[in-house]
């Protein structure tokens, strides 16, 4: 539970509230390839990655477009489901055997109502995820493929060796051929 506690503490939570929060988390384990969240469905839980790696993707015509990676200490959720109660647009697939900690949205909302500190923690969590989303958007719009790859290496140093290059190329918005060329130029 070390990685999950690290993530929760990162945004500031007292030991009492941390203890309350951790006591309601449910440990779940899934194999590599498991689709944890499926597009078009309402997902009623939030997951914290203890061990493993995941990717979020969209089905676009005849291909899957990866737009996010999550590893240890990251949070997995469907934004549409969590915030709006609507079916999600994304699927989240586990790329390794994974151990996760799960909390239902219903239980989390009750915690927010009963513990102001946890409610503020939840707000900080959402703010940090929004900032990451904005950074990814700006990167895709204004940076070259080479700079995006260098940023990826710096942001996800432990992901590069654990993820299929096709998923990385998709995340960067380039072909695998272009990714291979960039990698060769940077060696």
TrEMBL record:
Transmembrane segments: none annotated. Pfam families: cNMP_binding. SUPFAM superfamilies: cAMP-binding domain-like. Residues 12-111 form the Cyclic nucleotide-binding domain. Signal peptide: none annotated. Gene3D superfamilies: Jelly Rolls. PROSITE patterns: CNMP_BINDING_3. This is Crp/Fnr family transcriptional regulator.
């Amino acid at each position: 539970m070390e990685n999950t506690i690290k993530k929760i503490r990162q945004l500031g939570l007292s030991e009492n509230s941390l203890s309350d929060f951790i006591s309601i988390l449910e440990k779940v384990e899934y194999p590599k390839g498991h689709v944890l969240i499926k597009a078009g469905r309402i997902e009623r839980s939030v997951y914290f990655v203890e061990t493993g790696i995941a990717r979020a993707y969209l089905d676009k015509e005849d291909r899957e477009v990866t737009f996010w990676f999550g590893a240890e200490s990251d949070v997995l959720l469907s934004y549409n489901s969590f915030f709006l109660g609507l079916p999600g647009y994304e699927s989240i697939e586990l790329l390794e055997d994974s151990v996760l900690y799960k909390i239902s949205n219903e239980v989390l909302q009750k915690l927010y109502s009963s513990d102001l500190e946890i409610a503020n923690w939840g707000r900080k969590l959402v703010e940090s995820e929004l900032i990451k989303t904005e950074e990814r958007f700006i990167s895709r719009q204004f940076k070259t493929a080479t700079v995006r790859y260098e940023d990826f290496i710096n942001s996800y140093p432990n992901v590069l060796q654990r993820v299929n290059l096709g998923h990385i190329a998709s995340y960067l918005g380039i072909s695998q051929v272009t990714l291979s060329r960039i990698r060769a130029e940077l060696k």
